[in-house]
Design a protein that fits this description.
The protein has a seven-stranded parallel sheet with strand order 3-2-1-4-5-6-11, with helices on both faces. Strand 1, helix 1 and strand 2 form a beta-alpha-beta unit. By secondary structure, it is an alpha/beta fold.
Length: about 325
């Protein structure tokens, strides 16, 4: 019988891509998502429809569930007894925190804590989780302008620049304490600007592609002087799949890894690449940098390389070309 993995955020961008890969590798996937309307639920439903067409769709079960409901989450965990948990559900976005704050508490703190609680209930029922992996973010590093070697997992993360980032710092601290107290093997994954087909429409790759194809204006923060380590979705999934069997065995079984491309790109060079990919010229509105936007993200992935023998490396132009092809075939999903 196939091993079971509980996947939260299954209708989200990274969760959907992971579900496809895990099904292909023979896992039984129990998917959870609350299908909220932070961005168009039509895209989330379309991802679920794709999973329903997967050759191994019989091994996928979807449950619409809010992680803040501890009783329902625990009941599902005890009924399905997953050997692994991949926790990717969260309230995403740094700028959204300027408009709404409660969703971050609801999803990123209470939801994360409840996933840990569910793992404890499984252990008490004699079915301990072998490894619980959870999504963190490059935003934990705060607003930095250094460093040619990239951000390292051992760097200080005590100065987040957004409410979203603060919740991710908190999740990492809570997870470390949980591992120390209960011995659950936990791994945090700091994602660096993930993009690709079926991606989030609130992030710049799809926002800018849509603007280019529709002849709309693009807001260029800080006059183009921002740097991002864009990481292609297939690389993220590969890293996650390789980390699943690599449960920490240290005294406190908690590890954190950077999942990034190690190739930071300046925003104006990124726009130029999008112009090349689409064959269109951007209409730019150069505006100041919002307080929530960090200056630079740059992953150092030496720790990931040492742990799993691999690290992301897809060139930005290659990934954006694939995203552009997807957009042209699916633009109706974005409204």
């Amino acid at each position: 019988m196939a091993d079971t993995i509980l996947l939260t955020g299954a209708a989200g961008f990274i969760g959907f891509a992971c579900a496809q890969r895990l099904l292909a590798e023979g896992w039984r996937v129990v998917g959870v998502d609350n299908l909220n309307d932070y961005y168009t639920p039509a895209l989330k439903q379309a991802r679920l429809a794709e999973l329903a067409k997967h050759p191994q769709a019989a091994n996928f079960a979807f449950h619409r569930l809010d992680l803040a409901d501890l009783a329902e989450l625990t009941a599902l965990a005890l009924a399905t007894k997953p050997s692994m948990i991949l926790h990717l559900a969260a309230q995403a976005g740094v700028r959204y925190g300027l408009q709404a704050q409660q969703p971050y508490l609801h999803s990123n703190l209470i939801g994360h804590f409840n996933v840990l609680q569910a793992s404890k209930s499984l252990a008490e029922a004699g079915a301990p989780v072998q490894h619980l992996l959870y999504a963190s973010s490059s935003s934990v590093y705060g607003n930095r302008e250094d460093d040619a070697a990239g951000f390292r997992e051992t760097d200080n993360v005590s100065t987040p620049a957004s409410l979203y980032a603060a919740t991710k710092v908190a999740d990492e601290a809570i997870s470390h304490a949980w591992a120390a107290q209960f011995g659950t093997p936990l791994t945090g994954m700091r994602f660096f600007t993930v993009y690709g087909p079926w991606g989030r429409p609130d992030m710049s790759p799809l926002l800018f592609l849509q603007a280019l194809h529709q002849g709309q204006e693009i807001q260029l923060f800080n006059h183009g002087d921002l740097w991002r380590d864009f990481t292609y979705i297939d690389d993220i999934v590969e890293a996650i799949v390789r980390l699943i069997p690599a449960a920490p065995t240290t005294k406190v079984p908690h590890e954190v890894y950077n999942l990034g491309n190690q190739q930071p790109t300046r925003l104006d060079a990124y726009i130029a690449t999008l112009e090349e990919v689409t064959g269109r010229t951007a209409k730019l509105n150069k505006v100041p940098r919002p307080a929530t936007e960090v200056y630079r993200t740059a992953a150092n992935t030496e720790k990931l390389q040492a742990a799993v023998g691999w690290a992301p490396s897809t060139p930005l132009a290659t990934g954006l070309a694939k995203l552009n092809d997807w957009y042209l075939a699916h633009r109706e999903l974005l409204g």
